[in-house]
Design brief:
- The chain is mainly α.
- Among the domains are: about 110 residues, Receptor-associated Protein (Up-down Bundle), CATH 1.20.81; about 70 residues.
- The chain contains eleven helices and no strands.
- α4 runs antiparallel to α9, α9 packs antiparallel against α11 and α10 crosses α11.
Length: about 290
């Protein structure tokens, strides 16, 4: 009888040990893969931010990412009461740094394009006054605000360490992912290689840019209502769900705890994202 009890106890302990080792190995593998992805996101985003002149330390940015994940997880758990959904939301928030970086980069490119007209006028006037192209770029660096000042300053720095002006301008067109900048850089490079009056080219480019902006503004006015409606229709259900979760928690409980409710929630989110993506694609008219 004693041997039977001892054998049963040993078997139970052995099974628990196997289960514990399996759980430990699974969690270790998951943490290892996730930590590698986390480090890749943090390091890659930090390098990309330095490319748009946003200086932040990798450790500091990692702390921001972890704090954001924690806040998202706590907020979702407070709203839903479901720990699984909260953990999934916290993990999904790891993609936010890349989204925010792309948004910040797009705004910087747009601001650069808006300032480019004044920069080209200043460059054209300096050339008409007898200065060369490098001296005209120095005037842009001295008199223009960021981001035009920062980008052309980097062009001058590259030329000072041995790069040709043509190569530095081509690097500028790579950093600023804009068709307008590529067009201007191509025109300036061709002019330096083939010769000609660059001031006439710059004046014509300035007129083309101004006409292009007038057309873009008209398109933005015509598509603003559709974009606003789609944005409101995307965030309105989530605001209503948050309000109901606070006012009537029992009303929203099946949506977050019942399997059918979770499936409906995922499907509704997916269709909303598809809908707003289609609307933004339709509203984005390429000129």
């Amino acid at each position: 009888m004693v041997l039977l009890k001892f054998g049963a106890t040993f078997l139970i302990a052995f099974c628990l040990w196997l289960a514990g080792m399996f759980l430990y190995q699974s969690v270790t593998l998951l943490v290892f893969r996730y930590s590698g992805y986390y480090k890749k996101i943090v390091k890659g985003t930090t390098v990309d931010l330095s490319g748009i002149f946003v200086k932040v330390k990798e450790s500091q940015f990692g702390l921001y990412v972890l704090s954001g994940m924690l806040l998202v997880g706590i907020f979702v758990y407070f709203m839903t009461g479901n720990a699984v959904i909260a953990v999934l939301a916290a993990l999904a928030s790891l993609a936010l740094p890349r989204v925010l970086f792309k948004f910040a980069k797009a705004r910087r490119i747009k601001k650069f394009e808006e300032q480019l007209v004044e920069a080209l006028i200043l460059l054209s006037n300096s050339l008409k006054a007898g200065l060369d192209l490098t001296q005209g770029i120095q005037l842009i660096v001295r008199d223009m605000p960021s981001p035009v000042c920062d980008e052309f300053k980097l062009v001058l720095q590259e030329t000072r360490i041995g790069s040709t002006l043509e190569m530095s301008l081509e690097n500028l067109s790579i950093r600023i992912d804009s068709e307008l900048v590529r067009f201007i850089v191509t025109a300036m490079v061709i002019q330096r290689e083939s010769g000609g009056d660059i001031t006439k080219i710059l004046d014509q480019v300035v007129r083309s840019i101004r006409d292009n902006y007038v057309l873009k503004r008209k398109v933005q006015v015509l598509t603003a209502q559709g974009i606003l409606e789609s944005t409101i229709s995307f965030f309105l259900p989530w605001g209503l769900a948050a309000a109901l979760s606070i006012v009537q928690p029992g009303f929203m409980t099946p949506l977050f705890h019942h399997p059918v409710g979770i499936i409906i929630l995922i499907a509704a989110t997916g269709w909303q994202m598809i809908g707003i993506f289609i609307v933004f694609k339709m509203a984005k008219v390429k000129i």
